[in-house]
Amino acid sequence: MAEVDQVIHRRLASKVALVNQISHYIVNAGGKRVRPMLLLLIARALGSDSPHRHELAAVVEFIHTATLLHDDVVDESDLRRGRKTANALFGNAASVLVGDFLYSRAFQMMVSTNRMRVMEILAEATNVIAEGEVLQLMNMHDPDISVDDYLRVIEYKTAKLFEASARLGALITDASPDIENACAAYGRTLGTAFQLIDDLLDYEGSTAELGKNIGDDLREGKPTLPLLVAMQRGTPEQRDMIRNAIIHGEVERMAEIVAIVKATGAIEATREAAQAQAELAKQCLDALPASEYREALLHLSFDSIHRSS
Fold first, then answer.
1. How far apart (Å, rounded) are the C-alpha atoms in residues 146 and 210?
2. Which stretches does DSSP call E strand in 49-167?
3. Which of 10, 188, 195, 299 could tie 158 with a disulfide, CB 3.0–4.6 Å?
4. How far, in Å, CA of 210 to CA of 216, rounded?
5. Quick one: angle between helices 160-171 and 34-45, nearest 10?
6. What is the pLDDT of residues 61-106, one digit of tens each?
7. Neighbouring C-beta atoms of residue 220, cutoff 10 Å
8. C-alpha separations of 125 from 57, 131, 135, 151, 233 in Å
């Protein structure tokens, strides 16, 4: 990961001062670096020391960071990872344009591997993520979306880059199609579990732990699984309160809504859904040979659902 960070800082370099300033600001903001870590662990679990692994790990982090820059503009967020968002500090226009710079730099880097399959995987992932963003936008302020529609947004917007990261880790080892697909399935289910916990923490965590404002999802009108389950299980009055909050993006009654989410068992239901995905992820690892790297991947699936930020 230290070598990945070196690649990130080297590849961030631009002759345009504002590009340097904003890109360094968001990349240095911390974050779990789960996607590059996933790629490295898969590659090492399959015995690879490919020189491309650090470059590709940095690529997936750049793509992820670009989506964060754009997300924060769309969501009008002002806090991420405990710091002001780039759009809050530098403005929406600069954030969108630097996000574009990170996307294009990521594509420059993937071309340098001179492998068409790498470009296919990442081009598809980037396109699907964009579709997920649009799907989420369409679902905003709609309390009547189905759980399947909600899960489709997760699959596109979050799980796809996890899947691509894991698939790339297998690809650079020249693994068989079966192994590559098992790794991709691990990434996809891990990413789904990860996002389910993210959505849960908006009703269970704290601003200090999360590094973002509690209630942001509700303010943005996002009908996430805790709210969908609470509406299914709550009284008509409770359901109407949550529906109204989603439609209007209201957080004035956030404390009451959190109480409903907890009282209806929606927290536990969301955690169980994440646990089920994590279990599927673990099963995918049966395709990999025993090693300390496979053990680390097993721990990663466990950690993804037992976290507070």
1. 27
2. 79-80, 83-84
3. 195
4. 11
5. 30
6. 999 999 999 999 998 888 876 788 999 999 999 999 999 999 999 9
7. 17
8. 14, 10, 15, 17, 35
* SS3 label, residue 84: strand
Taking only the tens place, the pLDDT of each residue in 173-207 is 999 999 999 999 999 999 999 999 999 998 886 65
DSSP 8-state assignment for residue 158: I
Closest CA to 147 of 225, 47, 234, 37: 225
Integer Cα distance of 82 and 210 in angstroms: 7
CA distance 248 to 228: 16
Contacts of 33 (CB under 8 A, 6+ apart): 1, 4, 61
Interatomic CA distance for residues 25 and 30, integer angstroms: 10
Q: Taking a C-beta distance cutoff of 8 angstroms, is the pair 172, 53 a contact?
A: yes
For 285-306, the DSSP string reads: GGGSPPSHHHHHHHHHHHHTTS
Tell me the backbone φ, ψ of residue 159, rounded to 5 degrees. Answer: -65, -30
Q: Tokens 């009703």 identify what position? A: 203
Q: Strand ranges (DSSP E) for 74-130?
A: 79-80, 83-84
3-state DSSP helix/strand/coil % of the chain, to nearest 5? 75, 0, 25
CA torsion, ordered 234, 242, 252, 248, to nearest 10 deg: -170
